[in-house]
């Protein structure tokens, strides 16, 4: 094992960088954000810039980037690419990388949802693979069909609630048809998305079971590097965070637990 904090990729390796957007106002207020368009906080903007510097320090130059359509991901990607000193690159955006649609829970605090529905329902809706929260109605003002960004998406594909399984189903075509094109071409590829869309992608990359993915947490603002072989199989299962301590602290914060440094995540 290399002692370098940022080892060079072996010849023939494809580098994929996954990044959950910086802290949003929904994160800061402990809300179910989903498809609602919460902006970055000041801390989130700093996290995004720090992520760009980490990528630059690792000797990586993203040549292609993919983001969701949500502002918190778009703004994070712009800050990252500016700090990473990337040259002109392709930046593609897709609704398929959006966060999980939390249905009627969107915009509500986690504490309020837990108090109303109980620990069992709360836990299933948050972490299970197939459970779906209550949907929003077709007349809901936040229905994505009312957002011009989704005008070209077939109406029967626009969600009113989703499970993680649903997120994975709508994400994988974009992975296969768009992101892998850049990865296979040897471009260092950056994907800036959300906790659940990235969990769904990691589930496929690492061949995780529905039970295993329950315990997978993606922190905000810390790049996760995957070195992929020619078959797009990770050479290190689970990838490597460019700042393992920051990633562990972020995961502990999201779980409401204390963090003590313990080396690699």
Could you please describe the fold and organization of this structure?
It is built from nine helices and six strands; from the N terminus they run βααβαβαααβααββα. With 265 residues, the protein is of the alpha/beta class. Helix 2 crosses helix 3 and helix 4 crosses helix 5. The two termini are 15 Å apart.
List descriptors:
265 residues, alpha/beta, Rossmann fold, 9 helices, 37% helix, disordered N terminus
Question: How are the SSEs placed, and which strands pair?
Answer:
Blueprint: E1 14-20, H1 25-29, H2 42-57, E2 64-67, H3 71-83, E3 90-93, H4 110-117, H5 119-127, H6 164-184, E4 189-193, H7 195-205, H8 210-213, E5 224-228, E6 240-241, H9 244-254
Parallel strand pairs: 1-4, 2-3, 2-4
Antiparallel strand pairs: 1-5, 5-6
Helix pairs in contact: 2-3, 4-5, 6-7
Q: How does the helix and strand content classify structurally?
A: alpha/beta
At the fold tier of CATH, the topology name is Rossmann fold
Helix-strand sequence: EHHEHEHHHEHHEEH
Query: Number of DSSP helices?
Result: 9
Q: β content, as a range?
A: 5-15%
List low-pLDDT spans. 1-6, 258-265
Tell me the Rg in angstroms: 18 Å
Oligomerization category of the chains in this entry: single chain
CATH class: Alpha Beta
Main sheet strand line-up: 3-2-4-1-5-6
Mean pLDDT: 92
The counted number of beta strands is 6
Name the CATH superfamily classification: Phosphoglycerate mutase-like
In helices, the fraction of residues equals 25-40%
Intertermini distance:
15 Å
